[in-house]
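Encoded backbone
================
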Amino acid sequence: MAHFINEIYQRYRNENIVGKFIYLNVAVYLFFVIVGVVATLMNIVSPIAEGVSWLQLPSNLGRFILQPWSIVTYMFMHGSFMHILWNMFALYMFGRIFLTFYSTRHFIGVYMLGGVTGGLVFVLAYNIFPYFEGAVGSSYLVGASAAVLAVIAAAAVRSPNYVINLMLFGSVKLKTLATVTVLLSLLLLSSENAGGNFAHIGGAVAGWIFAVMLDKGTDVTSLGDAFSAIYKRVAGFFASLVKKRPKGPRMDSTQKSNYTKRAGDYEYNSNKKQQEDEMNTILEKIKQSGYSSLTEDEKRRLFNASKR
């Protein structure tokens, strides 16, 4: 079991930021599925459900004030297998396109910005429109849809004519797909999933604002660097749990040296791969839009890489 967990962890480390976020979402989903099964077997579903509700985003403003962290935690939780399947498929598909034009830091910032904005739009809608008066006390929001829509919108603004191939519809331009998705959310604002559609629109608007502002020289995701730091701390915490080895026969000095060397080599190769991925993204951006389209941070990293 320990070997299996370690193998999953190594695969996680080798992924780019999109893959890492997919791993994180799936891990959270599986954790709560297992907790739900155990709770059902132990006949303690109600207290577990109450505990989980503190991680979901409530539409009730009073409850939201008591659990402000839910504006972040809700976007990593999903209500069903199909829910997470479609969200992660979209994140995988469009996240890779996003990284063609933007950096890893931008991805984290846009994902979080889209999720937070979508969540706030959800809460505001339920407390402003009389239509939701009967549901405002019992409605909760979960899912990464708003964050994913932010990623799609940002990519569509950056390269509207980027063509993707969809199984049932053939070749479709990215701007067309983004526009249709937003229009569907607008048309379904009074549907059964009204709250989710409000969040979709909020996420898409956040992604659009990011792309437009960045094109004008202002990086709004720099305001969300704290989210990147939190993500790294959380990921580091779970990584430390995986790294803890079970007690067993002590290694002699030669074994320790070999083990340390392998760990160092892996760390070096992992960092080197990440740097190469970042440079490939920057070079592709130059190819698509020229050197002037680079941000100051990207120009600095390109300059530093040229000196190595």
Remarks:
- The mean pLDDT is 83.
